[in-house]
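Quarterly update from the structural biology core.
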Amino acid sequence: MPNSSIERILILAKTYPSPSSKYMETSCVAGISDKGLMRRLYPVPFRLLGDKQQFSKWQWIDVRTRKATQDHRAESYRLYVDTLECGEKIETKQNWAFRQNWIEQIPSFNSIETIERARIDDGLSLALLRPKKVLKLEIVQAKSLEWTPEEKEKLMREQMQGDLFSQEDAERDIATLKKLPFDFYYHYLCDVAEGEKEYRHKIVDWEAGALYWNCFYKHGPNWEAPFRAMLEDHLPSKDLMFLMGNQHRFQNQWLIISLIYPPKLQPQEVTQFSLF
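Predicted structure, tokenized:
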């Protein structure tokens, strides 16, 4: 494994899985290394991993990585799934004090304009956006309610890459990934030079997709009210931030790949959470 090394990475983002022509299905995974370096990791066919390798947000992993050769974004690294080991999870104790120290190390901005400028000037492709105010959640029916035949073929493919999976993994019965029937967007305000400006960005955080299914299975056709209550009321009442990631082919297009929502700190608490 030339030009590779073992890294310790704190997972900050897992997107809802999508069909992959090469890896059956894959998720966008992003995090920050213990040296404070942002990482986008691929391929991560998360649902196909063994139980001991399935990690969550805010969990440390140790894994061998190397710089991606076909994805020139600075933060994009290939990982070797067979080397992945899960470590401890950072909990929410003391008003997220243990998480706040890592949040502070993520490149942070107050508007998409400043993020886009950093992309053009410095090649940045992962950044934390701190919106001034969330205006609303927009729910849009997906263009297709079912996977296309091509997507379904990718999901049902029996032969998986030998360099990613053991024979035992390859022979496991993998449940078909459910397609989300809706797309979710946040409308929000940021301060720019001209004043307040409204933005709209798609949420692809796996947690949002899982929340939809939980609400649907529990409430059936009445799923929307509890879903909105969480994303439109509860999370915006926190110190809600968006971890933004751009797209490989269209790098000026950004997605909300993770929702980060520590509690709002009182002024006297702001200077008290640093642990280092």
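Residues 94 and 256 are 26 Å apart (CA to CA).
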